[in-house]
Amino acid sequence: MTQPARVTLPATAHEPAVAVPAIGQGTWYMGEGPASRADEIRALQLGMDLGMTLIDTAEMYADGGAEKVVGQALAGRRDEAFLVSKVYPWNAGRDSAIAACEATLERLGTDHLDLYLLHWPGGIPLDETLEAFERLREDGKIRRFGVSNFDVDDMEGLYGRPGGDSCAINQVLYHLGSRGIEHALRPWHRQHGMPLMGYCPLARAGRLQQDPLTNEVVNTLAAEQGLTPAQLMLAWAIRPVDGLRDLIALPKAVHLEHVRDNAAVLQATLDDQAVDRLEAEFPAPFAKEPLDVV
Ligand code: NDP
C-alpha cells in the first residue's frame, strides 16, 4: 500500500514541522439541527478512522453548532486530530479574538486548536489580530495561526507586519473549475514556503461556468483511472506540483460512501497525462483574476 498523501506545515519558532493528511474534513452546514447530528458525528469519526484526521470548522458554521458536532466526534480521541477553526473578522480584535477563541474551545470541548484562522480580511487592523493570535499561542490555546480568503495583496500586507510571517496557511477556494489562485497566489505561497488549503474542492457551492462533476472528460477519465468523478477532482486538487504536495483539500461529506471515497483518495495517484487532459478541459485563467470566494 502506498503512503497516504500528506502535506507538511513548516516548523515555526515554537512548533516543530507537522505532516497532516492532504485531505481533511470540512464541516460547513453541519450542526444545523438535531436530525442529522448522529450522522454527522459518525461521518467525522469514520473519516478519522480512515486517515482524514484534519478537521476544519468555524464559529460561523451553524452559529457554533458545527463546532459542537466536531467536539462530540472528537470525544475521547482529541489527540488523533489536527483541529482547525476560524474567527469572524469582526471578532478578530485584540480582546475579542481571545473571547471568540475561548468560546470555540468550549464548544469543541478541547483546550487548544492546532490552527486558528482569520476567516476573511475585515475591518479590524491586522496588528490587533496578530497580537491576539500571539497571546493565544503563548497561553497554549492555539498552536499555529493562519488566514483564509487572502489574495496576494492581503498576504503581502500580512507578511509586512510584526509576526505576520509566522502565518502557517491560507485557506482559499480551489477546484478544477476555479483555478485563479494558480496565476499569482499559489506561486506567492510557494516562494514563501507556505502551504494552502483548498475549500469547496468538489465545486458544490459558488459560481460555476460548468460543473466539473458532470463534465464528460472528467467522467471518462475517472472511469479510466478507476475513480469516481469526485475522487478524480480531489486527486487533482492535491496533486504534487513540480514534485511538491503543498495543498490540502477540504471536502465536506456526511454520506458514509462519500467519506470512504474521499479517504481513499489519500492513496490515489494521477499520472501526468490525466492531469494534462483535465487541465486542458478546465484551463487556468491567463491573467490575474479577483480571488474567487463563496
Ligand atoms: P464541497 O466541495 O466539499 O462539497 C460538499 C458536497 O459534496 C456535499 O453535498 C457532499 O455530500 C458532497 N460530497 C462529498 N464527498 C463526495 C463524494 N465523494 N462524491 C460525491 N459527492 C460528495 O463543499 P463545501 O462547500 O462544504 O466546502 C468544503 C469545506 O471547506 C467546508 O465544509 C468548510 O469546512 C470549508 N469552507 C471554507 C470556506 C472559507 O471561507 N474558508 C468557505 C466554504 C467552505 P454529503 O455531505 O451529503 O455527503
Descriptive terms for the model:
single chain; 294 residues; alpha/beta; TIM Barrel; seven-stranded parallel β-sheet; two-stranded antiparallel ribbon; 10 helices; 9 strands; binds NADPH dihydro-nicotinamide-adenine-dinucleotide phosphate; AKR; NADP-dependent oxidoreductase domain-containing protein
Summarize the structure in words.
The protein has about 290 residues and is α/β, with parallel strands linked by helices. It has one domain (about 5-280): TIM Barrel. The chain is built from 10 helices and 9 strands. It has helices at about 35-50, 65-75, 95-110, 125-140, 150-160, 185-190, 215-225, 230-235, 255-265, 270-280, and strands spanning about 5-10, 20, 55, 80-85, 115-120, 140-150, 170-175, 195-200, 245-250. The strands form 2 sheets. Strands 3-4-5-6-7-8-9 form a 7-stranded parallel β-sheet, with helices on one face. A two-stranded antiparallel sheet has the order 1-2. It is globular and about 55 Å long. The model has no long low-confidence stretch (mean pLDDT about 95). The structure holds NADPH dihydro-nicotinamide-adenine-dinucleotide phosphate (NDP). NADPH dihydro-nicotinamide-adenine-dinucleotide phosphate binds near residues 27, 252, 255 and 294.
